[in-house]
Design goal:
The chain is mostly beta strands and 174 residues long. The chain has strands spanning 5-13, 17-30, 33-47, 50-60, 63-72, 75-80, 83-87, 91-93, 104-108, 114-129, 132-142, 146-151, 157-164, 167-172.
Length: 174
Amino acid sequence: DVPVGSYAFKVTDDGESRIVQANMQVEVKVLRVPIYRATHERREIWENGRLVSFTGQSRYNGTPYEMTLTRDGKVASLEVNGVRQEIDSDGFTFVPWVIEGLDSAVLITEKGRVVKISQIDLGDESLIVNGKETRLRHYLYRGVWERHDWYDDEGSLVLMTYEKDGAKIRLSRD
């Protein structure tokens, strides 16, 4: 495994709200020549386990994406590069902070793409994470792709794996 970047999160709880700030930096090189670059940053606000708003900016190989999500009741309004769409479902961003009730939901990617997904609880597993055996809850998310997430006893995401363009991606918490 060769690290190609980082995806950092700062989570702040103030009692009723959870504020998540995310920052991603990725650069893939072949023979020291960059062949893929991606950056992403966003600020999310969660209330009572629901994503109520976020703002984000991404750049993938030079293509920019500006995103804003606001919610009025169950309906969310997502604007990506000036194009607005309504989402009549609970949605979450690429890294879900709430794992209950996601049997059928939508995922909003770092490019602002809305993907319908389903969640399957695969049960508890013991995995080696950062050199230490850890008991984790395993979930499979299915949509236009498959992603595996593992959570600790507190419901915090510990490990995520998926495939993209033939590459195996593994994100783990330090």
